[in-house]
Amino acid sequence: MSEINSIIERMKQVTDCRTDTQLAEYLELRSNSAISTWKARDRVPYAECHKIANEVNVDLGWLITGKQSGESIFPNPIVGHVVKPTAGADLVQIPQYEADLSAGVGAYPADHELAIGSRPFSAEWLKKKGLKPANLKLLRVLGDSMEPLLKDKDMVMIDTSRTTPTEVMPFAIRLDGELFVKSIQRQGGGNLLLVSKNSTYRDIVIDSNHPPDSFSVIGAVVWHAHSWV
User: Does residue 109 have a cis peptide bond before it, meaning omega lies within 30 degrees of 0?
Assistant: First the structure.
């Protein structure tokens, strides 16, 4: 049995779910075929593992690896790491994460959101922009749905303190255990429209009065960088 299938089987075991469909319903995923998508991508969202571990009080490390760890083996996917100043310069290191923000039909970043390094930014520049280092994350964009604004493999900075949707800037959002970067438009009746800049991709409607449990706004894109090589 593959590692992914083993994780899914442990998820079923502790939730008393016999089928993939029952597990999708337990997790309140938007599609009952979501589990099949996990298998096809060979990845299981960390957010869903964390949710089950909390709800049924099982060890998260065991749920993911099959071995008891006694504690979560991943950092909190929302809370940023402590940012330390760079010695000898007016710089602070902003953590860069392994996760990708999908600018497409959905990437798989929410499972292994581990800091893989950091990049230096001017403390003075951050202060002028009203950005607090502890709220910031660096991630890569995956896909072309936000072109021409954001291109595949662009680096973006997310401010996790800015979670109120506006049309001024794109936002990182979590939906069905995956992370996306989209523009957010408010519609009449309280709906939110998750919009791609690339018209090839269809918009996603979220009822803000009754949003799915799997939906949350992670933060606003406040900076991005693009390389032509």
Answer: no
